[in-house]
Amino acid sequence: MIKRILIVFALLAAALQAGAQTAWHIQQRLMEIPHGQYSGITRLQDDVYAVVHDKAPGGGLYIFTIAQNTDGTVGAVNVFKIDADGPKGRDNEDVVFVPETETLFVSAEGDQSIREYSVDGKETGRQLTIPEDLKKNKSNAGFEALAYADGTFWTTTESPLPGQTKHIIQSFNLETLQPGSRFLYQADEPSTASRSAAKASAFVYGISAMTVLPDGQLAVMEREVYVPGASAGFLQRLIGSFTRTKIYTVNPADAKPGELLEKKLLTSFTTSALSLANFEGMCLGPVLEDGGQTLLLIADSQDGKDGLTGEYLRVLAIYPQ
Q: Where are the domains positioned within the chain?
């Protein structure tokens, strides 16, 4: 415990010198729950969270209870499926809870929509008005990330729009459901060479989640997943597979609409072999006794794809400047 406190103080001191926040990695935990394709998460209250499953009907909504200890580590996790109406195939990727309306908004990559649902999974009929240019990305390149706080939604596509090299981060107003200001975001280049990516049995790179932090900044998750080609044996694929996750912070309040946002690295990490985790969802959790704001990351295992991965949660604690 004393060692951890000293490390936290050292990290805080480094953050103050660099003018940035720092993140402490508390735990990556394999949940003892059925395999699924859980791709987004938002906190409702206390230890209750809404989670979206990208192959489930309607908004793909589930309720998770995630018990956390005072040090941020995760205890028991329970899953309850919501009996929601609606078609499959929307590829629901992220979810946010709106306290003002006590409803959920879900971003869907299948039809590039962001719809409102009651907490019991029923469509309200309301949805954000999506600009036509943001509907151009298809399949696995569309809406993956959704964030909300204080009357404003934020979203972006997983990959830049056709013919562009930068992402568009678009805001929406809660009252009108209309688009507001937009900004540009430059993602890092993937570490995997294009030649290797073309031969992979699975390769994904892009923005998979966003969250509004308590200070109003946006946390943006850049995620890279690589699994060797199908010709490789299971052991080769197990050893050769990896994910790389980077979380940056940006502050739209410091930029003019249309400008490129300045990003600062909050944290980065890699998973591989027996801890391989494809993190797609991110949300705020409880505040720790030492003042750290927890951030929960949830992984999409693709139904435990070929036994390479599982249903993981990762807990970070953010310490402000």
A: 2-319
Strand 123-127 vs strand 143-149: parallel, antiparallel, or unpaired? unpaired
| pLDDT tens per residue across all 321 residues of the chain | 443 433 333 434 333 333 368 899 999 999 999 999 999 999 999 999 999 999 998 999 999 999 999 999 999 999 999 987 778 889 999 999 999 999 999 999 999 999 999 999 999 999 999 999 999 997 789 999 999 999 999 999 999 999 999 999 999 999 999 999 999 999 999 999 988 898 898 899 999 999 999 999 999 999 999 999 877 788 888 889 999 999 999 999 999 999 999 999 999 999 998 899 999 999 999 999 999 999 999 999 988 877 889 999 999 999 976
pTM as predicted: 0.92
Cβ neighbour number for residue 76 with a 10 Å cutoff: 10
CATH placement of domain 2-319: 2.120.10
Give how far Cα 244 sits from Cα of 47, 180, 206, 241, 250, Å.
28, 32, 11, 10, 20
